[in-house]
Amino acid sequence: VDPFDQADATLEGVLGTDQLRVDAKGAPGDKVYIWDPSQGVGGGYDIYKLTDQGSGPVWFHIGSSVVSNPPVEAGDAMWIKSPVGSVDDLELTITGQAVESTAVTTPIVEGFQLMGYPFSAKIAVQDTDFIADGAQKDAKGAPGDKMYLWDASSGTYKILIVKDPDNHWSEVGGDGSAVADVVGIGEGFWYK
Fold first, then answer.
1. How many helices (H) and strands (E) does the chain have?
2. HSE-CB of 22 using CA atoms within 13 angstroms
3. How far apart are CA 112 and CA 138, in angstroms?
4. Total-model pTM
5. Cβ atoms < 10 Å from Cβ of 156
6. What is the pLDDT of residues 64-116, one digit of tens each?
7. Shortest CA distance to 35 belongs to which of 66, 70, 59, 67?
8. What pLDDT does residue 171 have?
9. Separation of alpha carbons 177 and 168, rounded Å
């Protein structure tokens, strides 16, 4: 993958076909999990792997057993899972176009949603537009919106909720103060 080539907004355009391990007999390859909030109750994953169909690696949708090159839009998030026993680390180049608009609308659906920040810069959680766009605080009998951020140092998710009266994101079980967490470039998070 050449990071200076103009890429199309598809799985092949974003990851290429030459960076991840190809699935082969006796040697399972890497899998890419793309969150689809429209699947079932609460969403689910579309899972893809690279297979060699005789003319080189192509993306294959595991659930439907067909060759597929799905769209990957600004703000979409994905997981990459390496096979058990993989000893070599992968360094990936993610390609794509810089988002030209200053505003990107990503629909929020009921249930869990895996999201990514669509711009080529980090953003403080407090600077996101979720609260301004109507994120709800916890209320008696009605749970509010939550953000789940991965904390690599503890190996757990940090859960954030909207706090009143200042309408800021605060850590569940914390002292109620505004968090200073940042969503970095290439990082995703869960939203519920």
1. 1, 12
2. 14
3. 16
4. 0.62
5. 10
6. 889 999 998 766 778 888 888 777 778 877 776 666 666 666 667 677 777 77
7. 70
8. 92
9. 8
